[in-house]
Design brief:
The protein has eight helices and seven strands; from the N terminus they run E-H-H-H-E-H-E-H-E-H-E-E-E-H-H. The chain is of the alpha/beta class and 170 residues long. The protein has a single domain (6-167), classed as Aconitase, domain 4, CATH 3.20.19. A seven-stranded mixed β-sheet has the order 4-3-2-1-5-6-7. Strand 6 and strand 7 (137-140) form a beta hairpin. The two termini are 25 Å apart. The mean pLDDT is 92.
């Protein structure tokens, strides 16, 4: 298991951010991150794609990723440059789709309440530690079981399987 900390500026949103807002259906003709990135969150925050930098962090309220079960949503978030999402809760399918493509997602209601838009935050996905570098505290989210962390570290399920197959003796 890697111990790679993520650090970035926070883009904070509210409750019920659905997959139709994360990546509008009109752009779901591709699964390529570079095609989806420029449209990520455009119906919620038209400036997100032009302001987000590699490594930045999305923080949101309850039920992030609700709505249709489009795999394009976490792909768009990663493609735009966000390194992880911290929320009070996630829609179940979005949660699994995020793991499958290697996007770290953390459930941390107290952190969401203590983090403001524009704060600098450091996240250790392996331990679940979230530190607000802007001076507003630190929190502990649940860490992933080692098997799930391996999938995230491999960049998703496809990378994980390739890694495992590469170690197999045929």
């Amino acid at each position: 298991m890697e111990n790679k900390k993520l650090k970035g500026t926070v883009f904070k949103y509210g409750d019920q951010v659905d997959t139709d807002v994360i990546i509008p259906a009109r752009y779901c003709t591709s699964y390529h991150p570079e095609d989806l990135a420029s449209h990520c969150l455009e119906d919620l925050d038209s400036t997100f794609a032009s302001r987000v930098k590699q490594g930045d962090i999305i923080v949101a309220g309850d039920n992030f990723g609700c709505g249709s079960s489009r795999e394009n949503a976490p792909i768009a978030i990663r493609g735009a440059g966000a390194s992880c999402v911290i929320a009070k809760s996630f829609a179940r399918i979005f949660y699994r789709n995020s793991i499958n493509i290697g996007l770290p997602i953390l459930i941390a209601p107290d952190a969401v309440d203590g983090i403001e838009d524009g704060d600098e935050v450091e996240v250790d996905p392996a331990t679940g530690t979230i530190t607000n570098l802007s001076g507003h505290g630190s929190w502990q989210a649940s860490s992933f079981p080692p098997e799930i962390q391996e999938i995230i570290d491999a960049g998703g399920l496809v990378g994980y399987v390739r890694k495992k197959l590469g170690k197999m003796k045929v």
